[in-house]
# Entry
Amino acid sequence: MKVKKLGGDRLLMMIEALANPQRLRILAALQSAGRTYVSQLARDVGISRPLLHLHLQRLEEAGLVHSQLELSTDGKALNYFQLRDFEIHLSPSVIAEAAQTLTMKPKP
# Structure
């Protein structure tokens, strides 16, 4: 299997998105349940929908999940989320290579 190299900005976004216990729980729930709509995912994880949306937005920006808005048979809009297939391989050499491509400025 060929490992796709990540640029520094993308790698940093992924690591930052994963560095939160709630987001790890969300990813675990999606791994277990598969494709799930927001209300069900909020119940599964045990957090409010507004808070879940904030976490899902961060995960989606990092490319770890994706969403699809669909209409149910009764006309309700349901936002479904599912995991994207991803792997992160970290080593000193991978980090050094990715760091050379960083365009993001350090946060104070």
Q: What stands out?
A: Helices lie at 8-18, 21-33, 38-45, 49-61, 92-99. The first helix runs from residue 8 to 18.
